[in-house]
Amino acid sequence: MTLLCKFARAEMMLHLRPRNLALSVSKRCYVQAYIIQTSQLSRKKLLNLKHLKRFSTDSIKTKLGEPVKQVNNIRRTKNNELRRLFLLAAPEKWRLIGAIAFLIISSTVTMAVPFCLGKIIDILYTNDQNKTKENLNKVCFALLGIFIFGGMCNFARIYLMSTTGHKITQSLRKKAYAAILSQETAMFDKVSTGELVGRLSGDAQLVSAAITSNISDGLRSGIMTTAGISMMFYVSPHLALVGLAIVPPVAAMGILYGRFVKKISKDVQNSLAVLNTTAEEKISNIRTVKAFAQELNEIENYRTKLQDLLQLCYKESFYRGIFFGMTGLSGNAIILSVLYYGGVMLSDSTITVGNLSSFLLYAAYVGISMGGLSSFYSELNKSLGASTRLFELIDRKPAIPIQGGKILEKELTGDIVFKDVSFTYPTRTESMILKDFNLHIPKNSVTAVVGPSGSGKSTLASLLLRLYDPVSGSVLLDGYNLRELDPCWVKQQIGFVSQEPILFNGTVRENITYGSKDAGDEEVREAAKQANVLEFIERMSDGLDTYVGERGITLSGGQRQRVAIARALIKNPKILILDEATSALDSESESLVQQALERATLGRTVLTIAHRLSTIRNADKIAVLDGGSVRESGSYDDLMALPNGLFRKLVQHQTAMLTSCRIVTRKLKLKPSCLRALRFDKYSTKVLKSHYGEVEVPDQTLSQYVFSKSENWKNRPSLTCGTTGRSYTFGMSKDFCRRGAEALLSNTGLRPGDRVGLLLPNVPEYSLAVHASLQAGLVVTFANPLYTAHELTRQFRSAKVRCIVTIPQLMETAQAVANNLENYDCTINIGGKAVPDKKIMGLESLLIPSQSIQLPEVKPDDLAVLPYSSGTTGVPKGVMLTHRNLVTNISQLMHPEIVKVNETTNDFQETVLTVLPFFHIYGFNMILNHTTLVGTHIVTMPKFTPQDYVECLIKYKPSVLFVVPSLLLFLVTHPEITAQHLSSVTQIFCGAAPMKKGLIDTFLQKINRQDCHISQGYGMTETSPGITLTPYTMPYEKSGSCGRLLPSTTARVVDLATNEEVSGPNQPGELLVKGPQVMKGYLDNQKATDEVIDSDGWLHTGDVVYYDEDEYFYIVDRTKELIKVKGNQVSPTELEYLILEIPGVADAAVVGIPDTFAGELPKAFVVRKPGFENVTPDHVQEYVNPKVAAYKKLAGGVTFVDAIPRNPSGKIMRNELKKIASSS
């Protein structure tokens, strides 16, 4: 209370005491400053008494200089605001000057009315009637002309002021919008969207109105007031003094009211901003509101905020009512006093009726004009409040400019370095996100960052995009600090795909071209194609011009994500940032998005932020973040090898979560699909079952199944020799097989169950010979045409072959073998003549049956073929495969989620070019039989030569290629093969040996297209051959995998030491499989059969594999090929992949050589590329040895060779390399 009294006394001293009294100017100004400050406190009705302690007499003495500055600052701010308001109108000054000129004229006309009216009244009161009428006509006609002119001037004034107002509003909004978008991201963390939109719309309108229409009305009121008062004094000075006595107090009240209105206007605008923010946020997320049934709560929340705004409006209305009530009362008082005093003067004849009438009208005009001035002053203060908010925004200089800085002249390589970076978000300065952070992201590499939540993963993307600047340290791009480079140019080099992409309300085309406004229609379609957008957009009636709705709401999550990828790709960025772009998608959408991402990452520096650790297996480098720094760094396998590593713990934690969810699922008796719907990947720690379920197998023989649809395309080409052009249609092939089967039984001594040996290269007749034999009930065994007579004799004796089918070029070898076979019947010479005395039959004579016979009944479980397994791991053995085995495997490949089958139609047929041998089970069943089933045109090559292969690519334009890794490497490295040669290829299938992701990426870079899908499979001769295959919807991060289990296939992975099942995903072990495609056993070799197929029916593949959380399998090595170094197992494949990374290395193979101390040592055989003779053994060891554990180093040495010996299927013949090593 004492303090309050002191304050009151100080205020009285300010107003009552002379300037030379005890209170100094400084103190007086300080008190005045405090009064002004308290008057500007928003939403407070009473002063806070505790707050007044700061303003005690003692504290006043300590702040003598500050008060004067505060008062001056307040006045200067107001003056600056007014000055800036008028400066906004400067570009439109000529229009405004014209409007003001018209305003003066129209106001003058208006103010002449009372005077003229008074004169008319005096004329009416004249006694001379004739003169009255004459004068009245003249005056009225003159006034009519003046009024018309005044009306035209008024129109011009309003038009000019209104259009000027619109232009100023446009300019102001443009400046405000530019200022908003130019601000750094940190500002948007603090200021709500609704508030910014409010400033852009409402505040800009208020300010614009203040300097146009409001100024116009104010000037009009001012002119009318001045002119009215002047005329009042002209008509009657005494009466004017009486009437205007009330003006000073009304003016003072108007000034006070204006100050109050400015303050409360700002409060109303702030409250409106809060209201707009609430409405904008909830309406834009209406689906979330409705999903949680929060409509009533949000309505109540909005009502509460409206009530707060209403209270402010009530307050404004209350004071507004008082002010205008008082001004109205003042106006009426003026009129009453004028009427009274004027009546007295009229009775004394000191004023005429006309003059009194004129005076009263002038007085009314003055009253109205003063009300207009009050309104003008009130609105001006409102606009000052709004302008304060706008100018704060426009004047704010962004901490990070949107442009300006160095633009590199050379092409960006994409090398990124985070150097000693420390960072904290501006809204959370107490929380350090990164601290002395260091990370190198090499150019053209894929680097993944993982870590616990809040470790700073997404922060790296924000810093790289320069949405924020680090507190200390630097982010380097190609060695340049990002602060030195032009931010706009930097962002043009970066493509960003976030977890939840936002699309704008427009068409798909407009959203894609948002990444590059200069892109043409062809570029848009190409980006859409690469991102798999065309896959869904072509099904929509408007195509790329389809409207997506606000935030892309009419599209699914996967579709929005693909549009976002296209938006990133269209500007062809050198750097790509992927912030867990598939974590919120269903499995089908994820696959399509991953396909797009697989293409997008080629030839770019990629930073991927991962939460699901299985998605970054194939990253070149993984950085594990924790506590604001890099805890671990290395490849996936390196990090998993760390016993107590953080990455390993994260993987195990996710695995444990999956296991727990599976237990819950079983207890609740939920379907496995429920688990997938929750985005948990299905696996079992014991038996793995196919993701695709069971397959329905037709109860048919192989020939019945393969030719079951051939009538649909019987006139289409089926088999063509790529060298000679010899060709058969599907109709001819089917007829040939039937006639050949009848001839085999009628013209030879062969009977159902007998064995036929095929000694043929890849010729069209290969398929015909096989299926003719099978329809005759015979069993077929295949042989490598490069085998010696000794090797062939061993196989054909084992198979009990009674007939050999061959060509003239191999006839000598065939006859040498035939002479050593028991119970031999005949040799069939394809393309050659018959020699009856040597039991040689020509193809033409064979096709002329001696009589029409009934073909035997062949059952699906009958033995069909006897391929012999590869001899690289032991003596070849005959693999007994039934018709059902082979039909099952083809049916497994026909699953719609695995292979994208494009069956032949009247207008479409795919073409396959194959050089892979048909005597290999991969070439026989997957290429020859599977493609025949769907009506594909097969172009064969009997012998591989680069020239013939290139010519076939040009002539036949194949859409599908079947390769092994060595053939794909040939396509990548051969200088004569260009992207144009491969332009027709849309699918590539690779098998027989593992293929590394890097080779796939290099191939896709060469063809310069992203629409070619590469599938990789795994299988064995013993499994017909397929076990796994990568589906065409496989996510990009799975590249390098050999796929998932085929339908109706189960598997186990067992530890090599304990023979127990591994604990779960990512644990290597031997693969065991079961399925209807598994062989009956080895021919006449029960012991070997029992060694491979155990008593529970599991086939032991001998291959070391592991599977991930999504049940994608990865081949590590063969158990018999593992190198044992001091009891440790070394994978040759791992070392081979490392060697192939060395520039100048074309091929490599690693084998174990004997060592007295270690048991075995790894030895490398390397093939140099032409022109890289400078690659030495030391170079190879210096590159490999630092990257592996000590026992994996190439301690056995490095030897350069001209070629790595491989068998026809592309597998490395390690026994041959061991012989070379032992002889050196």
UniProtKB/TrEMBL annotation:
Q: Name one GO biological process term.
A: bioluminescence
Keywords per UniProt = Acetylation, ATP-binding, Luminescence, Magnesium, Membrane, Metal-binding, Mitochondrion, Mitochondrion inner membrane, Monooxygenase, Nucleotide-binding, Oxidoreductase, Peroxisome, Photoprotein, Transit peptide, Translocase, Transmembrane, Transmembrane helix, Transport
Does the entry feature the keyword Chloroplast, yes or no? no
Tell me where in or outside the cell this protein is found: Mitochondrion inner membrane; Peroxisome
A GO cellular component entry from the record? mitochondrial inner membrane
Which EC number(s) does UniProt give?
1.13.12.7
SUPFAM superfamilies associated with the record:
ABC transporter transmembrane region, Acetyl-CoA synthetase-like, P-loop containing nucleoside triphosphate hydrolases
Every copy of the ABC transmembrane type-1 domain together lies at 97-382
List, in alphabetical order, the Gene Ontology terms for molecular function in this entry: ABC-type oligopeptide transporter activity; ATP binding; ATP hydrolysis activity; identical protein binding; metal ion binding; monooxygenase activity
ABC transporter domain location:
416-652
List where the protein spans the membrane. none
Reaction(s) catalysed (UniProt annotation) = firefly D-luciferin + ATP + O2 = firefly oxyluciferin + hnu + AMP + CO2 + diphosphate; biliverdin IXalpha(in) + ATP + H2O = biliverdin IXalpha(out) + ADP + phosphate + H(+)
The membrane topology of this protein is: Multi-pass membrane protein
Q: What the protein does?
A: ATP-dependent transporter located in the mitochondrial inner membrane that catalyzes the export of biliverdin from the mitochondrial matrix, and plays a crucial role in hemoglobin synthesis and antioxidative stress. Participates in the early step of the heme biosynthetic process during insertion of iron into protoporphyrin IX (PPIX). Involved in the stabilization of the iron transporter mitoferrin-1/SLC25A37. In addition may be involved in mitochondrial unfolded protein response (UPRmt) signaling pathway, although ABCB10 probably does not participate in peptide export from mitochondria.
> What family name appears in the similarity comment?
Belongs to the ABC transporter superfamily. ABCB family. Mitochondrial peptide exporter (TC 3.A.1.212) subfamily.
| Record-given protein name | ATP-binding cassette sub-family B member 10, mitochondrial
Species name? Trichomalopsis sarcophagae
